[in-house]
Each structure stands twice: as structure tokens, then as C-alpha cells.
Specification:
This protein has helices spanning 6-46, 50-63, 68-82, 103-117, 224-232; strands at residues 124-125, 131-137, 149-152, 155-160, 166-169, 175-181, 184-189, 193-200, 205-213, 218-219, 235-248, 256-272, 275-286, 289-304, 307-317, 331-340, 345-353, 373-384, 387-397, 408-418, 421-429, 434-443, 447-456, 472-484, 487-498, 511-521, 527-536. Helix content is 18%, strand content 47%. It is globular and about 70 Å long.
């Protein structure tokens, strides 16, 4: 046993701090080399200097083998260099949009020429400035997505969750994110690059990874054979395999394997004469036990004669309906959705068994089907662009359904836009009790304010379980303010009374929940952040 004097201990501590100050900056600088090289490569890539950009990304791999952004850009540049150059015909008058012919007019003229001469020259048109591709639902199927998600510049899509509270866009120059409703975000690809998007809703935090690629030129169909091929399209097959191992022990050389599993994911997508077809499945293997944890098949943008725009999906699916009466759980069954009356009305009919889909990420043996079923009808009516009315009716049954749940549930929503102000009201009824939600949302260029008032009976139930904030009477406010390009201020205040689990001494007492966040960006690599949280429950 050794006994050290206080002077020796103090000397060792000072010497340790000195070593840290010497070596840590060098280590930190070395880790920043691939990121710095990728920034140079991204700038060259945007300027169209593909060969020079490729060289910088290859240097980044020398500094950090396997660096994901560099690998993605190298693959993207190699694909572009391999493609033959396309010469745009001169007669296209880009400066006069009113003179540019529509796609249908070009097709009709080319087909007429084909009928006369039988010889045609392909022409090209650019995609629209901003095209909404579709909707990405935040549910368990996100775990099966292949990241990063590649999207073309000047395209947009909707991300839909359940009561989205806040989001963090790491690179605003690449993606533009805007909250268009309590459950939806509009994501638009603004510039080429690689970025992450973090979203917090009422269930958890979701992290999505994106790579924005250049817009592609679309070839105009000029023959009947090519017109048929474009209508039928081609199929794409994607496959991935993941492996996970769990070991336990006191030291690295004493670790013992506890469990491991394999996950296989397969997807096929393509265009058929009746719409866009897709199907995917996930198989998980734990030791010698295999289980089909997820399977879905569907048709988007359906087309049968004059009947078009409908959606059809079977097996595991998310109905795309989430409100106070139905929490939007995944089901195993079927769903049909279609617009009507010139897109002023949209209806969705679905039904299926509970207990699947939600357990996709579990190990084999943990997913259990129950004899519990839910069906529903959801109608969304928009008589004017600024007014939306929604109504839903749900029915639940089954021998293993929770006896505390009621067989029927109803929901009604109203939403109106008044210039920069959006207000909405929702009421739900579970056949015995009510739930109410009133919200206001005001947004300008650099200021966003939304508030909601809720009143939910303590015995209120959804179709699958406890009601949303059951028993709460409260007021919630969120504020976001960006006074400059370098300063962001956000806050959240929730004041509510819990009638389900009240204070036994003061039953009518209100709870307070306050969060404040201030972020100041010094430069691209440095920032100052202040967080304050207060809870009194």
C-alpha cells in the first residue's frame, strides 16, 4: 500500500490537465478534417465542378474511411458522370412561361407527327418548381426505411405524426420545414446537401436522414410504344439485412453472448396500368426462430377508367386517421381512400385486427395478435380553400377487446384560416363522455405562436385505450421567435389540472410546466445555448 503526499497528488493533477490541453485540440482538429473537406466538396458540387468535388470527397475518405456523407456524394457524382449528356432543344423559351406548352399538348403534337412521318425526335421538359410527392407517416414502419432518404431538389412532401410538439432542422439551407397543422409538417428540398430532421410528437422523438439530389430531366413520350412503356413503368427491388448482437460481462475479454438476431427487409415498387404499386415485408430471426413481423401491399394514385386518385392497402397498414377518438394505431386488415367532388371531399374506410404493425421492432415471439378489431369511416370536406370539416365514426369489437372500452366512438373537427391566423375546434365522444380541443396558430416570417385549450373527461377512452390527456383541463402555449439569422428563441408553457390523478390535499390545484430555449450561433462550428425548465406538479 502506497501513501502519497498532498504535494505529489496536486502535481499529478496539474500535469494531467496540462496533457489534456495539449492533446485534445489536436484530436478535435483531426476529427473535423473529413467534415471540412466535405464542405469544400459540397461547394464545388453546387458549382457544377464534379471532378474537383469528387477529389475532395475522396480525400475525406482518406482521413476517415467509411464517412457516410462522403460516400453518398461519391456515389451520386459517379452516377452523373456515367450518364450521357443531354442537349436541350433551343426552341424552349424559358423566359416566357406563358408560351411553354403543357405536357399534354406536347404529347398530342408528337403523336400527330408520328402518324404522318413515323419519325420523331425526343424532346425534354423540366419538372415543376415545387412538386409534392406524398406523405411520410411517423409510425413503426419508419424503422424499415433505408436512410438517407434521397429526394430531388425543388420537391416537397408531408411528414405526418400525432400532435407534433416541435422539430429541429439541422441544415435549413438544404431543407425548408414548416408546420402546416398540429399533426403535419411540409418539408421542401431547397438545395443540394446532406441533413438530419428531428421531430418530437406525443409519442417519441423521430430522426430522419435526407440527401437532396439534383432535379432530373423528364423525357417526353413521343411514340405509342414509349407511351405504353411509361404508363407501365419499371419495378424497383430493394433489400437490406441488419444484424444485432447483445453481450454482457464485467470486462471486454469476459463478455458472453446473451442474444442476437437478424432482420431482413424486402421492398418492391413500380408503376402498373392501375397506379403505383408497392409491397414490402420484414422478417426477423432470433436464434432458430423466424417471424414475419411486417407485411404490406398497396396501390397509390389508383386509376380505373375515369375513377382515379384512390388508395388501396392490405395487411399491415396505418389508416392515416388520427384524432381524439382514434389514436391512429397500425392494424392488419384493409383500407380504401379516395377523393370525390373535384377533390373537395375525401373519404377513408378501413378495418382490421389490433396488435400487429406496432410490434415490428420486437424480437420474434413478442408480437401477439388479439381477437380485437377496429373499423372506421373518416370524411374530410373542404368546401373552400380556407375551411376544412372532418367527421369520423369508429366501431370496435372482439372477444379479447378491453371491456373498459366502448364499442363506438365519434369525432368532429373544424378548421378555418383567417389570413395569418388558423383556428380549429375538435370534439370527440366515446358513447359516454366527451373530449374538447380548441387551438389557435399565428405565423409570420420570423415569429410562430400557437396555443390550445383542452378539456377531457377523466373517463374518456379512445377506440384502443386511454383517452388523450384523460382528465386534464388545461392551456398549452408554444412560441418560436427568430429575431436574426444567428438567434433562435423558443418556449413552451403548459398549465393544467389533472382530474384523473389530482392532488389529494388540493383537488382543484393546477400544474405548471415551463421550458425555455435560447440558441445563439457564433459560426458554423460554434454556438451558445441556454435552457431553462420548470415543473410544478
Amino acid at each position: 500500500m502506497f501513501i502519497f503526499s498532498k504535494k505529489i497528488i496536486v502535481f499529478l493533477l496539474i500535469f494531467s490537465v496540462f496533457l489534456i490541453q495539449i492533446y485534445v485540440p489536436d484530436l478535435w482538429s483531426w476529427e473535423l478534417i473529413p467534415e471540412y473537406l466535405c464542405q469544400i466538396g459540397e461547394r464545388l458540387y453546387r458549382e457544377g465542378k464534379l471532378n474537383e468535388a469528387l477529389s475532395e470527397f475522396q480525400k475525406a475518405l482518406l482521413a476517415s474511411p467509411g464517412y457516410e456523407p462522403a460516400l453518398r456524394y461519391i456515389q451520386l457524382i459517379q452516377q452523373q458522370l456515367a450518364k450521357p449528356s443531354v442537349k436541350i432543344p433551343a426552341p424552349i423559351e424559358v423566359g416566357y412561361p406563358e408560351k411553354i406548352k403543357t405536357r399534354q399538348e406536347i404529347i398530342q403534337e408528337e403523336l400527330a407527327r408520328w402518324a404522318e412521318k413515323k419519325e420523331l425526335t425526343p424532346s425534354y421538359i423540366y419538372p415543376a418548381q415545387t412538386e409534392v410527392k406524398g406523405t411520410l407517416f411517423l409510425d413503426k414502419s419508419v424503422e424499415n426505411l433505408q436512410f438517407p432518404i434521397e429526394i430531388e431538389k425543388n420537391t416537397a412532401f408531408i411528414v405526418e405524426g400525432i400532435s407534433i410538439q416541435r422539430f429541429l432542422n439541422t441544415v435549413p439551407q438544404v431543407l425548408s420545414v414548416e408546420k402546416i397543422s398540429p399533426d403535419q409538417l411540409m418539408v421542401e428540398a431547397k438545395d443540394l446537401g446532406y441533413t438530419y430532421l428531428h421531430i418530437w410528437d406525443s409519442r417519441q422523438r423521430w430522426t430522419l436522414e435526407f440527401l437532396v439530389t439534383p432535379p432530373q430531366l423528364h423525357k417526353t413520350v413521343v411514340t405509342l410504344e414509349e407511351l405504353t412503356e411509361e404508363k407501365e413503368g419499371s419495378f424497383k427491388l430493394r433489400y437490406s439485412m441488419d444484424w444485432s448482437l447483445y453481450e454482457s460481462g464485467r470486462r471486454l475479454d469476459e463478455l458472453e453472448r446473451i442474444s442476437y438476431y437478424w432482420t431482413h427487409w424486402l421492398e418492391i415498387t413500380g408503376d402498373i396500368p392501375y397506379g403505383k404499386f408497392d409491397s414490402s415485408l420484414s422478417v426477423r430471426t432470433l436464434r432458430k426462430k423466424e417471424e414475419l413481423s411486417y407485411f404490406t401491399i398497396g396501390l397509390e394514385e389508383g386509376l380505373i377508367g375515369s375513377f382515379k386518385g384512390f388508395k388501396l392497402r392490405g395487411f399491415d397498414f396505418w389508416p392515416g386517421v388520427a384524432n381524439l377518438a382514434f389514436s391512429g394505431d397500425s392494424l392488419r386488415g384493409g383500407m380504401f381512400s379516395s377523393p370525390a367532388f373535384h377533390d373537395r371531399l375525401n373519404y377513408t374506410i378501413f378495418g382490421g385486427k389490433e396488435g400487429y404493425g406496432r410490434y415490428t421492432g420486437f424480437s420474434p415471439g413478442l408480437a401477439r395478435m388479439r381477437e380485437s378489431y377496429v373499423s372506421g369511416l373518416h370524411i374530410n370536406f373542404r368546401p373552400q380553400q380556407d375551411n376544412i370539416y372532418s367527421a369520423s365514426v369508429f366501431h370496435g369489437w372482439g372477444s379479447q377487446r378491453n371491456p373498459d372500452l366502448n364499442p363506438y366512438g365519434y369525432d368532429l373537427q373544424i378548421e378555418k384560416h383567417l389570413d395569418k391566423l388558423l383556428w380549429g375546434y375538435e370534439i370527440a365522444h366515446d358513447s359516454e363522455t366527451f373530449a374538447h380541443l380548441f387551438n389557435l396558430h399565428y405565423r409570420t416570417g420570423n415569429f410562430d405562436f400557437n396555443t390550445e385549450f383542452r378539456n377531457t373527461d377523466k373517463d374518456f377512452r379512445t377506440m384502443t385505450g386511454w383517452g388523450w390527456r384523460a382528465g386534464e383541463l388545461g392551456w398549452l402555449t408554444n412560441i418560436f421567435y427568430k429575431p436574426s439569422d444567428f438567434l433562435d428563441i423558443s418556449g413552451r408553457l403548459d398549465i393544467f389540472r389533472d382530474r384523473l390523478y389530482p392532488n389529494p390535499d388540493k383537488i382543484r390545484r393546477f400544474n405548471q410546466d415551463l421550458n425555455l430555449d435560447i440558441n445563439y450561433q457564433l459560426d458554423q462550428l460554434s454556438s451558445l445555448r441556454y435552457d431553462y425548465s420548470f415543473q410544478n406538479e
